[in-house]
Amino acid sequence: MRVRSQVVRRVTAVAAGLGLAAGAVVGVVGAASANAETTKSASSAAAVKKSVTIDASDWIVPAGSKVRYFGKTAGIAKNTVVQVQRLEGTKWVNFPATTKVTSKGTYSVYVQTSRVGKHQFRIAVAGLVTKPQHLTITKK
């Protein structure tokens, strides 16, 4: 009887040891998996494609009125300068209106002009430009 109980204790101890060892392996594999997931998430964030959108509060306004241009960005850092541009002839020139990208990736900027006629404005930020927005300025 005594020999049998020693064998049972030893088998139980070995089984318990194997269980602890298996748990340690699972823990190491789990940690490695979590680290790989973190690395994957970090590389996905770095791979976010840069983009910018534009919308306007109005498209036809009287001379001297303010028009708000606003939009969203992706992959562009907070506080990056947003520049409004106007098409003059065949060239895009910087309009005297700028703002910065917010922490939420948005921007909002006002333009005001008394130059009557049809105009095209766009946003330039971080090497990107939006599609042109048409704005008609009428006489007061």
From TrEMBL:
<feature type="signal peptide">
    <location>
        <begin position="1"/>
        <end position="31"/>
    </location>
</feature>
<protein>
    <submittedName>
        <fullName>DMSO/TMAO reductase YedYZ molybdopterin-dependent catalytic subunit</fullName>
    </submittedName>
</protein>
<keyword id="KW-0732">Signal</keyword>
